[in-house]
Amino acid sequence: MPPSSPRAETPAALGFRLPAEWEPHHATWLGWPHNASDWPGKLAVIPWVYGEIVRALVPGELTRILVNSAGHERQARRVLARAGVDLPRVEFCRFPTDRGWTRDFGPLFVRRTSPRPEVAIARFRFNAWAKYPDWKKDDRIPARVATRLKLRLFRARVGGRDVVLEGGSIDVNGRGTLLTTEECLLDPAVQVRNPGLGRGEIEAVLRDQLGVTNVLWLGHGIAGDDTHGHVDDLCRFVNHRAVVLCRETDPHDANYRALEENRERLQGMRLENGAKIEVVDLPMPAPLYFDGRRLPASYANFYIANRALLVPTFNDPKDRVALGVLAELIKDRPVVGIHAVDLVWGLGTLHCLTQQEPAT
Questions:
Q1: pTM of the full predicted structure?
Q2: Are 141 and 105 in contact (CB under 8 A)?
Q3: Does residue 176 sit within a domain?
Q4: Is residue 180 a part of any domain in this protein?
Q5: Is the residue at 16 inside a domain?
Q6: Which residues are catalytic?
């Protein structure tokens, strides 16, 4: 079987693929914050950051918010109303969660255009980054969303075992190329998602479930990343041909060597059509610490919504540079900076919190 041939009855064989983030959305999914262990000592301010995020989203698309209960929904409605959000553009789903990192446990929506437009869900298991004990509620979300929206659900399995994958560990250009890291998906000893599965088997699952034909492996992620190497903190597609890659200029910084190695790898890589990848430097903010811990502050954790490009900012002189770089690359929607100094204490920011549902 050729490497790019999907197995029969998989999403890819039926014409489904994972769209690029800039393709039209029907909705953005978020999980309303509630777990105090995600933001120790700071949970009270986090809903107001969500209010800013949702206010930027709703002019362009529906926002679907996961809440634990009627009381949780009332709290969310109060915050959003006070933040000036157009509430008719917000839909609440009372599906309890363990945490709010919807990118990683939420449904991965795939889409096809023929024989008729259809959206389905590629269902991967979630096990809290192979690190934490509370994940069972989060793991149920894709199936519950499929039932709610009446969508087909495809289970990613190898040898009778569900495959673990988080949305933040991959990024696609919508034409067949996918970016990920060896640190996250192939490390044999630390936060091992799929024991016994090697590079070839993981690539086959990604082809079958997400409709990709070209998997590109970067090396290590950034310092402070609790996920052990998610690609959405270091390298992202901004169009079919180009990526932004974080660049650290201080050779003594913990991120310098890994980011330089990733740059060298990208220079030798090719897209699905054989073309070279255009690599654009994205600055790194100065190291950010809280309670003695290095945080994974990164401008690469942006989110491309229908009518806005949401970018985390960190009260750093390089905020303006990063916003300018991204504005030059993505010109069809305004760039909106979202203050993320409090948010990143949860070890993630905007992309980690959001999951796009494509339009049909």
A1: 0.97
A2: yes
A3: yes
A4: yes
A5: no
A6: 352
Query: Chain-centre distance of CA 239, in angstroms?
Result: 16
CA distance linking residue 181 with residue 169, whole number of Å: 7
Work out whether strand 157-158 and strand 303-304 pair parallel, antiparallel, or are unpaired: unpaired
Domain residues for the domain of 351 are: 25-358
Q: What domain count does the chain have?
A: 1
What is the enclosing helix (H) or strand (E) of 219? none
- At residue 147, what is the residue type? T
* Cα gap 231→244, rounded to integer Å: 11
- CATH number, position 77: 3.75.10.10
Burial class (CB in 10 A: 0-12, 13-18, 19+), 241: middle
Facing residues of 216 across strands?
179
C-alpha distance from residue 246 to each of 57, 254, 261 (Å): 25, 13, 12
Residues 282-320: pLDDT tens digits? 999 999 999 999 999 999 999 999 999 999 999 999 999
Give per-residue burial for 208-240: e unless 16+ CB within 10 Å, then b. bbbbbbbbbbbbbbbbbbbbbbbbbbbbbbbeb
